[in-house]
Amino acid sequence: MTTSEPFGNENWAPRFFTLWTGQAFSLLGSQLVQFAIIWYLTLETNSATALAIASLMGLLPQVILSPFIGTWVDRGNRRAILISADATVAFATLVLVALFALGRAEIWHIYGLLFIRAVAGGFHQSAFGASVVLLVPKEHLARVQGFNQALYGGLNIISAPLGAFLFAVLPMQGILSIDVLTALIAITILLFFRIPQPERGAAAKATFWQDFAAGFRYILAWRGLLIVLAMVMVINFFYSAAESLTPILISKHFKGDVQQLGWWQAMFAVGTIMGGIL
Predict the structure, then answer these.
(1) Mean pLDDT to the nearest integer, 3-10
(2) pTM (2 decimals)?
(3) What's phi and psi for 169, nearest 5 deg?
(4) What SS3 state is found at 189?
């Protein structure tokens, strides 16, 4: 193996970044739709309660299901799970596109979409993280995780202003259609892409609940990890509660519009990245 290039000449690099590109499109579409939906709810309801319910629809499924999702992904086919998650989001979003186009969309339809997206997103995030470990050599994992963090940070910066622009020039069904398109791009790439499966060995004989219990015992036995997880859970709980009310704060208190919300979220993302660097 040569070292003239950052990643060497192995076959894993183009394979991984092909997958990475498809998932980047999917993530961008999801963030654009998430931004547009929240602002739409703000304008239509002008209600903090409605935004709080929307936040719960996007948060609770992952909080409740994430321990089970991890076990499911460990036992399942990563590629099939990624395709299924993207396809589920695309289909649910397409239904909402039709409802908006027909003028029959209701608030509870949006809550339903947010719930479905949260469940599918939990599977997608877990399966993608597990796939990275299988596709990337150990010596390059840290660098690849850096690419992933750069992707998330960059998308957080550009998605809100871009979402604000699209909200001003497109109807809701047009913005939602972008998410369907980006999901189809990700699915198309995955259809021609093979993700290796890990060797389970003796673990293949374990049942779902035995695997789940083993993972739970592992976390409980690692005191440091348990403390970090508890801290993250508490911080995210209070942050999510406050963050869900930001659109109301901007629209009612500061008399701002969608552009102000977009730039606020972009600046928040920049601050988060700078805080991580420091």
Answers:
(1) 44
(2) 0.81
(3) -115, -15
(4) helix
Domain boundaries, the chain: 12-196+245-277
Structure tokens at 53: 């319910």
Q: What DSSP letter does each residue of 19-32 carry, written as one string?
A: HHHHHHHHHHHHHH
Dump pLDDT digits (tens) for 178-222.
Answer: 999 999 999 999 998 888 777 665 555 677 777 777 777 877 788
For residue 182, which amino acid is it?
T
pLDDT digits (tens, 9 = 90+) for 77-96: 889 999 999 999 999 999 99
* Distance, CA of 197 to CA of 11 (rounded, Å): 17
Please list the alpha-helical segments (H only) found in the chain: 12-45, 48-75, 78-101, 107-135, 141-169, 172-191, 208-221, 223-243, 246-248, 258-277
Q: What is the dihedral of CA 61, 85, 81, 14, to 10 degrees?
A: -120
* Residue pointed to by tokens 């890990």: 198
Type of residue at 230: A
- Quote the CA–CA distance of 130 and 74 in Å, as a whole number: 8
Superfamily of domain covering 12-196+245-277 = MFS general substrate transporter like domains (1.20.1250.20)
